[in-house]
# Entry
Amino acid sequence: VSRADIVQISTEDNIPFHNDSTNATTKYARNKVRHLVIPLLEEINVAAKENILKSVSYFAETERIMNDYVRRAKEAAMSSSNGLLRIDVAKIMQTAAPSTVLFEMLIGEGVPKPLASESVCLLEAQTGRKCEMDGVEIVRNREYIEVQKSVGENDESVVTVNAIGELKKYGFEISFAYCDD
# Structure
C-alpha cells in the first residue's frame, strides 16, 4: 500500500495518522529499497513498482502451489514411528524436483536449513551415509532416509556472546546491541 493510499484511507475513515521517524532514514535496508532502489528502477521503467508487486503476488501463488505439492509428497513418502521419520526415497525421486521436495519436507519437520541442505545428497547416497547437526541425525538406510532427533534432558543450546555484534550459528542469526531507553 502506498503512502498516499494510507493517508487517503486515514483521512476518509478519520483514523489518526502517525509518521514513524525511522521511515525517512536510509539506515535500514527496507528504506534503502524504498528511497533509493525503487526510484532508480522507476527511472528505467515507469511501471517498475507495479511489475514488482505483480511478481510478488505471482511468487506467493507459486509458493502456495509448491507447499501443496510438498504436502502431497510428504503424505505419500513420509511415515513416523517412535520419533523416527522415514522417507521413501523412490517416492521422492518420482517427484518433479526431488532435491527441493526433500529439502522442504525436512525444513517442515524442524530440521535446520544447513542440515536439510546437506542431507539432499542422501537421495543418491549408499546405505549408511549420514548427516548430523544439533542432535538431529539423518541417515540413508536402504530405500529410506531416516530422521532421528535425539531427545536429551536439555534440548536447549546455550550460546554465550561476549561482544556487541552478530553471531551466525546453526543457520540462525543472533544479534544484540546495547540500547538507551
Q: What stands out?
A: The mean pLDDT is 87. The CA atoms of residues 66 and 72 lie 10 Å apart. The two ends are 31 Å apart (CA to CA). Residues 48-77 form the longest helix (30 residues).
